[in-house]
Amino acid sequence: MSVEVxxxxxxxxSFPGLSQAAxxxxxxxxxxxxxxxxDVDLSAEQLRSLYRLMALSRRVDRQAINLTRQGALGVFASxxxxxxxxxGAVFALExxxxxxxxxxxxxxxxxxxxxxxELLALFSGSWHCGFDPYKYRVAPLTTPLxxxxxxxxxxxxxxxxKHDPIVALTFFGxxxxxxxxxxxxxxxxxxxxxxxxxxxxxxGYAISVPYRLQTKASSIALRAAGVGIPGIRVDGNDVVSxxxxxxxxxxxxxxxxxxxxxxxxxxxxxxxxxxxxxxxYRSDDEATEWRGRDPVERFLRVLREGGVVDDAFVAEVExxxxxxxxxxxxxxxxxxAGDPREMFDHVYAARTPQLDxxxxxxxxELRAAEES
Amino acid sequence: xxxxxAGALNAALRDSMRDDDSVVVxxxxxxxxxxxxxxxxxxxxxxxxxxxxxxxxxxxxxxGTALGMALYGLRPVxxxxxxxxxxxxxxxxxxxxxxxxxxTRGRVGLPLVIRIPYGGGIGAVEHHSESPEAYYAHTAGxxxxxxxxxxxxxxxxxxxxxxxDPVIFLEPKRRYWLKEELxxxxxxxxxxxxxxxxxxxxxxxxxxxxxxxxxxxxxxxxSDEQGWELEVVDVRTLxxxxxxxxxxxxxxxxxxxxxxxxxxxxxxxxxxxxxxSERAFGYLAAPVLRVTxxxxxxxxxxxxxxxxxxxxxxxxxxxxxxxx
Amino acid sequence: MPTIRDFLMxxxxxxxxxxxxxxxxxxxxxxxxxxxxxxxxTTEKAVVEVPxxxxxxxxxxxxxxxxxxTVGKPLISIEVAVSASAEGxxxxxxxxxxxxxxxxxxxxxxxxxxPDGPAPVATAAMPPASPLVxxxxxxxxxxxxxxxxxxxxxxxxxxxxxxxxxxxxxxSTSEQPAAAGTxxxxxTGVDRIAAERLTRSHHEVPSATAWLSADATRLMELxxxxxxxxxxxxVTPFAIIxxxxxxxxxxxxxxxxxxxxxxxxxxxxxxxxxxVAVQTDRGLVVAVIRDAQTKSLRVIADELQVLAGAARDGxxxxxxxxxxxxTVSNFGAFGVDGGTAIINPPEAAILGVGRIATRPWVVDDQxxxxxxxxxxxxxxxxxxxxxxxxxxxxxxADLIETPDEAIADD
Lengths: 372, 324, 410
Description:
The complex is a heterotrimer.
Chain A: E1 20-26, E2 32-39, H1 44-69, H2 83-90, E3 98-100, H3 106-112, H4 116-119, H5 121-124, H6 133-136, H7 147-161, E4 168-173, H8 180-192, E5 196-202, E6 205-206, E7 209-210, H9 211-214, H10 223-227, E8 231-235, H11 239-254, E9 260-265, H12 284-291, H13 295-305, H14 311-332, H15 353-371
Parallel strand pairs in A: 3-4, 4-5, 5-9, 8-9
Antiparallel strand pairs in A: 1-2, 1-8, 6-7
Helix pairs in contact in A: 1-2, 1-3, 1-13, 1-14, 2-3, 2-11, 7-8
Chain B: E1 2-4, H1 5-19, E2 23-27, H2 43-47, E3 52-54, H3 59-72, E4 75-79, H4 90-97, H5 100-103, E5 113-118, H6 133-137, E6 143-145, H7 150-162, E7 167-172, E8 179-181, E9 195-198, E10 203-207, H8 211-226, E11 230-234, E12 237-239, H9 243-253, E13 256-263, H10 268-280, E14 289-293, H11 304-307, H12 311-322
Parallel strand pairs in B: 2-3, 2-4, 4-5, 5-7, 6-7, 10-11, 10-13, 13-14
Antiparallel strand pairs in B: 1-8, 6-12, 9-11
Helix pairs in contact in B: 1-7, 3-4, 8-12, 9-10
Chain C: E1 3-8, E2 18-24, E3 31-32, E4 37-42, E5 47-51, E6 56-61, E7 68-70, E8 74-80, H1 131-140, H2 158-167, H3 189-204, E9 207-215, H4 217-225, H5 237-251, E10 257-260, E11 265-268, E12 274-280, E13 283-289, H6 297-313, E14 326-330, E15 349-363, E16 366-380, H7 386-401
Parallel strand pairs in C: 12-14, 14-15
Antiparallel strand pairs in C: 1-8, 2-4, 2-7, 3-6, 4-5, 6-8, 9-16, 10-11, 12-13, 15-16
């Protein structure tokens, strides 16, 4: 039941190192090459930053699960186990680049800088998107699978038309890769040379459906050959390799050489959402095996071994994590509902006469309820 | 200058692109070929392939990328080649295009236009004669416009392109070759306004898109043959609907009917009938009738004339209205 | 000063309504920290560890292991130390609060009005009114343009019409202020049903009347000459006329019919089931003599007496009150000459027979006192016309004037 990982990542705790990435390239004829090493330029400060983002986002993820079990969030999709894939990828973006995430990328969007309370609005039931896309250059967390990939392609095409050297990065999963929109996005990006990077997190499952029932292709990266664009397959639990692979793709896009498909092989340690029961479709042994390749733990170990972080730093990050979690509890537990009249205000730029009428009807109801 | 509706649409696209370089036009066969109905003829030659270009056959892709472009600040005007082929894009349109402003609490507006040639009466094969306006009009967040005349085609397309919310622009393809004497540019009426095309007192005939011509034809015959003076109202914007104009007319004549090609059951006419019944109940001498296509999949070319509403059916319905 | 905070059972899976306590992980009295797992809950979908949102001392566990807790009800109560953030809670609004019934709202005192409801049109010739009201206005002979509408958008309502009616002096059926000396009697049971039938008949049937007077002298003589029968019942003049009706209806079968308003059909009957209106303490009922065309005068007279008696003392069978094809009403019993009876729906006609009174008549060019009876036929004009109605009543009159042959065998 386990998914093949890149041969460079053999054994539970090894990965190439802090300055070396490894990944497999898809050849034009559609074969996956052997894993090749690449130098990665990450300063000590950047490495610490990567760790901090991974550790904080894990703490946020855990707190969100707790808040869900306490009824503060209606549901939550955990990305535990996928921190390296998401943080490593967004770390490769520049300030003006755009991100098109799904409901699975709480970790990635948090790492990109979106305020955690605004981010969780989707799950807390207060509004379908709680943050301003233009403020963070992050699109709303999208639910219908693969549909946001086309939005990323469109934005990238627009940037190209306007000669803006920016890149759009979108995430989707092994399940979403089966959707028609995923193919249309990859294909159109190729036709127009759009500056897009598609990061497919292959975490082995689409809710309960395992990879082998999702597609007969041995790797999702191979689709790149089908649409004539470069493809990469990388160990999604090796944050340095993910960073290296995505950085290569981002640089390629920015200089006008078109899109890349990056498949990051990883594992979803928690259930699909808090409403799911994993015991119905996978074994505990499998999860245990993947915990042995925990991306945060192994990265921390190598950072310590390399003298890049010390106990004080780790403690500082942990404290920051607790403060963030406390802030989440304060803002999200017992959070009041907004004004229901707002549901009429953003359907169009200006409310139509019909919406004015409906708003007035609700207004009457609310006042009558207040008076009784 | 005499222009066909297709020519008027072409002029509207050209003038909009000249006035605003954020306007980009794309879709299947719109660039090199100039569109299967020539509505985008000459645009690529004049504006270049960055402003007017062809796409792979990917309707969801066309709609989804239009969203991304609008998010970035462009004004994409994309084409679904035929009504029946707009359906693969429905997920993008309903799940995202319609909802994006609301989802982002008003921070992101999508000033995009999706042009769709629609309707029957052209002797086409299956999937090329659909009337899907009800699906779009029923979706909150979409603005749905359908011109009935060449002048309106020019004016309403320009208004739609300049509009700050997504517009589904339904072009009555059987009227593409309708001619009108036009002095361009024609001033754009506001989105959301219906218009009385012909004044009358006997009964109100409410129509849009391809049926505007049919309704006016029925009115001429009604006057000549029966001495009935029909008032014809052209809806123009299906959503948001200008009920004020419709109510005023129905109240004045006391008798109203709606005509559309689309099937009767849960069709757009039902909305107008229900609203008029609620708002003009006391002034109606008769129930609001609907003259529509049948509740069947659009038939083949040789029998489509039996499906489509025509002037005779409109006159029959007026006769029924007058029985009350 | 410690406060008790209730942690309410959350919806653990997108619309679930309850969960079962599989296992408690803490006991009452234990000190817990924020997010510490306190219970294992089994739901339809999974077994979930639920962490406490409050830190403090466990005050109450709201159920034993195995108990089911409804979403929104308290699961565990924690005694917390009061702090700034603990105050000002909004009331524990739960997200995903299950699919259980919302608490019922108290009914509003008045319905909410749409702001865009019907609006009066100043230029309209007539005020707005529903089709029903317009029809009623025509029936009542009220000019709508003189009525003020009190309904939405100035619409004229039924009540407005009734007010206009009483204003015009006609008897009003609307609410009037109760005056001293007024008694209200509600129509119930038979009366109510009869009222509904009569109203319907009055509204729906386009009726017309034909009447004439007949010389019943010979009929009265014949009656006196009848041999005493084997039964004790006497043959009344009315019974004779009923017998003669069956003869006349055989010649004019169009009147022995119903009108079906649903299918717009005239339904003609071969048998003649004569309905006879009988006055009882409980009101007017129609007793039915079935297959009257097969029955002799004697049999009809007997049955008439039996049915009338049963109707009056309330013992009449329901079957005997149904199925009439033609009804006859005895106005003579009230001492009047005739009237326009109300058709018994769905029948096509009703015959009214007045009293037999001595009147001046012309016989052989001389004025002579004769026994005269007035016949009035009210008929549904959809089923028959004046020719048929007149023909029938003329024929019946002929039979009354010379009944001998018709009842010779009886």
